[in-house]
Amino acid sequence: MDERRKAETEALKEGLVFVIDDDADVLTALGSLLRAVGCQVCGRSGVEGFAETGLPERPCCLLLDIHLRCSSGLDFQRSLTERRVAIPVVLLTGAGTIPMSVRGMKAGAIDFLSKPLRA
Questions:
Q1: pTM value?
Q2: Fewer CB within a 10 Å sphere, N or C end of the chain?
Q3: Within a domain: residue 119?
């Protein structure tokens, strides 16, 4: 394994991916997929308490479903920005629209993915 690939693999092991999705099957599948490529994963079914717990002192990101049962992922993303919680956000949705994706990207999302996810 070349040095660059080895460094990337080690960085994955050090980082943490938060996944917030209220669909238990999606949460399980994403967690399994991310762990299979060496990521550490913290899955949640809702946004409650996420911003209050503080972020770890290591690289992390958030995969955030837009349509949650009790809240909007887009509203939660905005609240993170307002509280100055600095975490890269990738938005996920099974029923997205162009205005929705524009809103998320303007609010700072680094990507907008449609479910079901495909390789």
A1: 0.83
A2: C
A3: no
